[in-house]
Specification:
- The chain has 275 residues and is mainly α.
- The protein has one domain (2-274).
- It is built from ten helices and two strands; from the N terminus they run ααααααααββαα.
- It has helices at residues 2-30, 35-48, 53-81, 87-110, 113-132, 147-164, 169-178, 183-206, 225-245, 251-274; strands at residues 219-220, 223-224.
- The chain has a two-stranded antiparallel ribbon with strand order 1-2.
- Helix 3 (53-81) packs across helix 8 (183-206).
- It is globular.
- The chain starts with a helix and ends with a helix.
């Protein structure tokens, strides 16, 4: 019986380890928080473990968000040591991004899984096109906007990121670079902003009504404690490696390769939402 139970959970264990390592690497390398990888992998792993489709994506999003807390700390510290943070943007965006994150987590806790899949798929497809196309040097303006627009942008990023279970880097980094922020500073700043997204969103998911996740033990709200316990330390340990590689590898090729992967993920999520 013990052997059968172990074999039943082995694919999920392998998927969690792979998701943690890949998520941590991408968090440091591209400033994307890792959730863009963790969510689809964990969603698929939960399905294999027998969790109902109505609950698996919610649990994947919430658990991914919880793992982003230590990953963002590890990644942002590594970038800060290299001077790749913009304190002015962090200060200006912190409050609206927290409020947006809380709103997104609250909304995601109540909507159908198909809506979450649709949001994830649409945003992932848009980000994938940005990463695949040679648009790295496109700049729409020279500074990040201030005033109401300056607050609305991070609030929207926080809300969408919370609903997707991501650290927001796939949204904040392109936004900052389009506003004239250098890529390396945008990546480091995006890693720090991931902390302001992940903490309030995780609290919201922990307090959400428990899902119908039959066969999934030790779940608080929508957060899987075993999933967090496996993914978080691996992501934490690998994120500094990604930050070091970010300063030595060809980012255009990495961005294009990751964009292709995102297109596949987006297609799967959109099929789940509308198929």
């Amino acid at each position: 019986m013990v052997t059968e139970a172990f074999l039943h959970w082995l694919p999920m264990l392998a998927a969690l380890i792979a998701a943690g390592a890949t998520g941590g690497l991408l968090a440091g390398l591209l400033g994307v928080g890792g959730g863009i990888v963790i969510v689809p992998v964990l969603d698929a792993a939960l399905g294999l473990a027998g969790v109902s489709p109505g609950a698996s994506l919610h649990v994947a999003v919430a658990t991914s968000m919880a793992t982003i807390i230590p990953t963002s700390i590890s990644s942002s510290r590594s970038h800060a040591r290299r001077g790749s943070l913009d304190p002015a943007i962090v200060r200006a965006w912190s409050v609206p991004i927290v409020l947006g994150s809380l709103s997104g987590a609250f909304l995601a806790s109540w909507v159908d899984a198909r809506i979450l899949a649709g949001v994830f798929g649409c945003v992932a497809a848009a980000v994938a096109l940005k990463m695949v196309l040679p648009l790295d040097h496109v700049v729409l303006r020279q500074t990040v906007p201030h005033g109401p627009a300056g607050a609305a942008i991070p609030a929207a990023i926080g809300a969408v990121a919370a609903m997707m279970g991501i650290g927001g880097g796939v949204l904040s980094v392109p936004t900052m670079t389009l506003c004239g922020e250098p890529m390396h500073k945008a990546v480091g700043t995006g890693a720090m902003l991931g902390l302001w997204i992940s903490v309030p969103a995780t609290v919201g998911y922990l307090l959400a009504p428990a899902p119908d996740a039959a066969g999934l033990p030790l779940t608080i709200g929508y957060v899987s404690l075993p999933g967090f316990a496996i993914i978080a330390p691996i992501s934490w340990g690998v994120a500094p490696l990604g930050a070091r590689l970010a300063h030595s590898l060809d980012r255009r090729r990495l961005s294009a390769a990751f964009g292709v992967f995102l297109l596949v993920v987006a297609a799967r999520m959109l099929h789940r939402a509308f198929g």
